[in-house]
């Protein structure tokens, strides 16, 4: 379905790297903020875990995960082990409470550290675009601010390029950045060896010097089929190094070429050059890329290697999210709020703008006097103008998180007696016949 | 693609904000309906209310996404055809087509690598997944997971506020 490939929400070639950008670019920065956000998370998630959902109750201890999360603070690469234990509800609440992108949550291991450091290569405009398309305009700015700090450490990444980078290395700016800075020891070696053979080709490639380097490697992309044979012979010795760059090269070139509506794929050494098997390989590469994407989205899947297990995890996660939606809609159906239109607008603004799960007192009765809502020192000189803005709630007081959550427990439980009658199978429908 | 991005760069029209607004409006409407009708707390009424809220959540989420993704289109299609009895015939043919696709995929699955069974389960979970190949299915699943996360976040926040 090629139509999907051009969607803005980024799972296509150009977009996939942008997809990672905001998440990973921010993972180093806002981590300290997450701690306070995460402290509230297990507490507020208590209800769903009690909501007769076997998936949630599978060995999840809110206090244990809380103590785990408190240790989260210092390093940017810790995340993964911390998140492995708390199952999805906790992780989801983390997402809810901290302000950043939905993608941010689970940077896993050292390869992600490399990815984080590689991010500055991306055009900064792409950050805000992708971030905004996922509904978080602040992401772009945060990611952009995080870029310069990471840029200095980019050189260290060079030799550690893994196949995961193939997902990111799609854009031209990315490639030129890599060629220029990243993997500098590799670049030098590649340049020396490739000069003789690749100079006629390099001119014709949009990707310039990097393409020249990569085409020397054993794998993949080449635009002139005539050069295939000498390339294959030359690449024998460089197979080992080439394989590292292989996927990346193939991905870059196929990502680049796909923009021209066709894909040049090069047969690797020892593989069939049948057009069917090449197409098959392209397909498989796409699928594995998407699997990697999903691995980042689903919490606790970073250790998993293996398609079947990964798919199982994905299925479980989707099911758990759907059950959470069902549960929350049940809760909302039984709760009876006293709302009017004004509160709706303010509520929507609060929800959209809420970062870190700070509470807001919106339980004011509409008839409450305006003097309570204004800060003391500010409006002394403009008191006459205040009554004109009375219907709006310009100031939302922030409550202490714990108090609000305690209220949530006491009041929320009591107002939803029907919810607690749900059976243990987590399936709400059969209960109400 | 670019105009869409410039639209979404306006913070008021992010997916989250669109979903929030749509969902809140639907919730208020449902509550008003509930107040006017008899507020019976029988299990049947509660279940009906729950269904309405759930459908409202799904529809507002799919509307916030629009027609950009296959799963949102499929979800909107399903809800709309659900409301119309005249669509029975159309739905039958739709189902037949889906079954054919599913079987087609199954037969193909034997030659493919692992994960066929899970792929089929995933197809049932993700709306509109039955008519997709593996590659698109995974892409749609990823987007669907993100949107589900947004949905859960917003709904949880609303539930918190309503409960205080």
From TrEMBL, chain A:
GO terms for biological process: regulation of DNA-templated transcription. One of its GO terms (cellular component) is nucleus. InterPro entries: bHLH_dom, bHLH_ZIP_TF, HLH_DNA-bd_sf. One of its GO terms (molecular function) is protein dimerization activity. Residues 1-26, 76-95, 164-259 are annotated as: Disordered. Transmembrane segments: none annotated. Residues 209-236 have a biased composition (Basic and acidic residues). Pfam families: HLH. Residues 271-321 form the BHLH domain. This is BHLH domain-containing protein. The lineage of its organism: Eukaryota, Viridiplantae, Streptophyta, Embryophyta, Tracheophyta.
UniProtKB/TrEMBL annotation, chain B:
Residues 14-81 form the IBH1-like N-terminal domain. Coiled coil: none annotated. It comes from the Eukaryota. One of its GO terms (biological process) is regulation of DNA-templated transcription. Keywords: Transcription, Transcription regulation. Pfam families: IBH1_N. This is IBH1-like N-terminal domain-containing protein. It comes from Juglans regia.
């Amino acid at each position: 379905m090629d139509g999907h490939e051009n969607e803005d929400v980024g799972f296509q070639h150009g977009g996939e790297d942008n997809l990672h950008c905001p998440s990973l670019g921010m993972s180093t920065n806002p981590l300290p903020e997450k701690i306070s956000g995460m402290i509230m998370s297990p507490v507020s998630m208590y209800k769903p875990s009690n909501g007769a959902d076997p998936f949630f109750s599978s060995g999840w201890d809110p206090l244990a995960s809380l103590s785990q999360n408190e240790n989260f603070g210092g390093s940017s690469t810790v995340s993964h082990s911390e998140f492995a234990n708390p199952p999805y509800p906790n992780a989801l609440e983390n997402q809810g409470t901290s302000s950043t992108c939905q993608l941010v949550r689970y940077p896993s291991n050292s390869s992600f550290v490399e990815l984080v450091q590689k991010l500055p290569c991306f055009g900064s405009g792409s950050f805000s675009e992708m971030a905004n398309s996922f509904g978080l305009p602040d992401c772009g700015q945060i990611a952009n601010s995080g870029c310069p700090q990471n840029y200095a450490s980019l050189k260290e990444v060079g030799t550690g390029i893994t196949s995961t980078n193939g997902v990111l290395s799609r854009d031209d700016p990315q490639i030129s950045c890599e060629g220029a800075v990243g993997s500098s020891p590799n670049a030098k070696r590649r340049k020396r060896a490739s000069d003789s053979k690749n100079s006629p080709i390099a001119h014709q490639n949009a990707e310039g010097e990097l393409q020249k380097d990569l085409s020397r490697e054993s794998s993949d992309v080449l635009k002139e089929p005539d050069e295939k044979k000498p390339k294959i012979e030359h690449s024998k010795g460089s197979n080992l190094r080439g394989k590292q760059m292989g996927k990346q090269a193939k991905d870059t070139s196929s990502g680049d070429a796909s923009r021209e509506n066709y894909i040049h794929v090069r047969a690797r050494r020892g593989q069939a050059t049948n057009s069917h098997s090449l197409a098959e390989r392209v397909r498989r590469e796409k699928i594995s890329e998407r699997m990697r994407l999903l691995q980042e989205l689903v919490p606790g899947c970073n250790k998993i290697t293996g398609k079947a297990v990964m798919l199982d995890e994905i299925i479980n996660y989707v099911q758990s999210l759907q059950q959470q939606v069902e549960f929350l809609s049940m809760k909302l159906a039984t709760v009876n709020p006293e709302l009017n239109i004004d509160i709706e607008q303010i509520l929507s603004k609060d929800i959209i703008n809420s970062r870190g799960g700070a509470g807001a007192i919106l339980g004011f009765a509409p008839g409450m006097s305006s003097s309570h809502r204004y800060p003391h020192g500010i409006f002394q000189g403009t008191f006459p103008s205040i009554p004109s803005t009375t219907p709006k709630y310009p100031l939302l007081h922030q409550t202490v998180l714990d108090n609000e959550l305690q209220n949530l427990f006491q009041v929320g439980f009591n107002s939803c007696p029907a919810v607690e009658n749900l059976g243990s199978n987590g399936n709400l429908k059969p209960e109400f016949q | 693609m670019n105009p869409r991005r410039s639209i979404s760069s306006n913070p008021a029209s992010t997916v989250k904000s669109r979903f929030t607004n749509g969902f809140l409006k639907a919730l208020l409407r449902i509550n008003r309906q509930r107040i006017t009708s008899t507020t019976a707390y029988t299990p049947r009424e509660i279940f009906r209310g729950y269904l309405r809220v759930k459908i409202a959540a799904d529809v507002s989420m799919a509307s916030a996404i629009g027609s950009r993704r296959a799963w949102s289109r499929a979800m909107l299609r399903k809800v709309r055809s659900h409301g119309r009895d005249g669509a029975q015939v159309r739905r039958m043919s739709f189902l037949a087509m889906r079954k054919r696709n599913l079987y087609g995929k199954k037969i193909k699955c034997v030659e493919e690598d692992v994960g066929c069974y899970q792929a089929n389960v995933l197809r049932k979970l993700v709306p509109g997944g039955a008519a997709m190949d593996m590659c698109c299915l995974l892409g749609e699943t990823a987007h669907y997971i993100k949107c589900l996360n947004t949905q859960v976040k917003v709904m949880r926040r609303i539930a918190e506020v309503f409960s205080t």
